Amino acid sequence: MSIQAHLDRIQTIFQGSFYTPDSIVCLVYQMLLDSLPQSKDYVLLDSSCGYGSFLEIPQRFQSTQFTQIIGADIDKQALQQAQKNFKDCAIAPLFLHTNSLQNVSREKFNILESSKLVIIGNPPYNDKTSIVQHHLKNSDFFEIDSTLKARDIGISFLRSFDTLKADYICVLHPLSYVIKESNFKSLKNFAQNYRLTDSLIISSQIFCPKSLGFFPILIALYKRDNQGMDYDFICDFSFKTCEGKEFRLKSFDFITKYIDKYPNKNRVDSGHKVAMFYTLRDINALRRSKTFITKDCTNAVYVTREKYSLYCYVDVFKQIIKHIPYYFGNCDVMIDYEAFRALESDFIQASESKILSENIMQYFKDLLGEHYAD
Predict the structure, then answer these.
(1) N or C: where does the chain have the smaller number of CB atoms within 10 Å of the terminal CB?
(2) DSSP code of 135?
């Protein structure tokens, strides 16, 4: 399959278009076909197909047949390349040049209402509220149905899959879509009608090896299900990583239970603050951002004496962040509160001196267990 070459760096970030290596395509098919019933009467759709990587069924899965294979994309140049890639195939996919997030219906994609539908692929994702590369993300690229609009077009694509009433969905998307509660809530009807049945976490390094930071991407298999899923389901879900690790969110306690992550000036009087801390998002944001600050600003969190040691804890967490694996990047800072309280003065000293004692390092090894990265 051809490597994406027609988009420059700015267009790639702006459109959220990162093309998928064949090795990842194979992982997706393996996950899908392990769960897909043996029936051969499914339509296969990739509504953001790019060069068609997901429409070229890997050789070891070619005994699997679909009644119809459809690829759609808003990028005309990518579609032209996809058509060239399949010109020698006995039965080529149907390619549609269209905006897959506007006027969404089965009819738009030439799919019968009675057909069983599988959606596969790597939809674009591009959080316009993200601080990272925000200057490249602040314009509307195409029209989106009002019911599908979200701050990230990847979430819009997931909502569109619900509109199409797909029976199975096996796609790549940021892990943050499900593990961050605010993102999970923005899935709306998708979460009400689908259930996560299998998954594998991979690193964004596969797509952007020269990036300054990597984040976790989920290969996710969803099945249409009247039960749907709530956030408690996600917290109890066992996420597997390509490194052979496994974790549940409910296995950890998080700092958000104990401190303010965001500016709290409307609740904390400036006379009660003993320090100021920069807005705290997730672990990946902590890698890039400041901790304690001396100059007041709109992103300042006022720290009271009662909470000072906990913010020292976050400051120390940043110092050991190289030991945190990429797949925790979108999580909040973890904490073992009881163990922290036993070492509270140690954390204050470590934050103020920037010297980490053996007790502190052992705390983090115990906290992370098998996930502690050397």
Answers:
(1) C
(2) G
